[in-house]
Amino acid sequence: MNQPPPQVITRFLTFTQLLSSTPRGARLARLLCVSQLRSWDAPHDVTERAEIVVAELAANAVLHGRLPGRSFRLTLVFDAPAGRLRIDVTDARGDRDPQPRPATAASSDTALHTNGRGLALVAAIADHWETLPHPPSGKTVRAELVGPAREAPDEIQPTRLITR
To answer: Collapsing DSSP states into helix, strand and coil, what is residue 40?
Structure first.
């Protein structure tokens, strides 16, 4: 009774990568995100929005979440049938919770405030975002993007061999 082992079919596609907490690491996170989503055939709208969100969250991880000698982690979880993408950027600084700058502060005194708009941009682009503790000392900033749901592919019919 040789039966093949049952196959686990998951609807989630996952990608994770540790990156150096440098500007080069932040840039690489953005490029890897776009490359991975294209390889998964993600909708163009989701890919474009994800590129911006990953760029902002990775830049924040490098600028505000960096500890010497510690990397940050990019994780993408894509639910293709639902068109839902979860982006997690985990850094080493759990003591610094990100706070978006209020729109009034972002628009006034442009010369003095050249940063602080990234999370406001993430909040505007993402369908949902939050900060989660990442023990022992880090945090994860999670953003979710929802695109158009895909139709489930029809069942593949077995090929029949026609003999005459």
So the answer is: coil
The side-by-side arrangement of strands in the sheet containing 72-79 is 12-19, 72-79, 84-91, 138-146, 128-134
d(CA 121, CA 99): 12
For residue 133, give the 3-state DSSP assignment.
strand
Handedness of CA 119, 98, 94, 21 (dihedral sign): positive
Q: Is 57 exposed, middle or buried (0-12, 13-18, 19+ CB in 10 A)?
A: buried
The CATH number of the domain covering residues in 12-146: 3.30.565.10
Tell me the C-alpha distance between 159 and 164, whole Å: 16
Domain-wise residue ranges, the chain: 12-146
Bridge partners, residue 88, by sequence: 75, 142
Phi, psi of 126 (to 5 degrees): -80, 150
Give CA–CA dist 121/130, Å, rounded.
14
Interval 80-103: pLDDT, tens = 999 999 999 999 877 766 666 665
What pTM, to 2 d.p., does this model score? Answer: 0.77
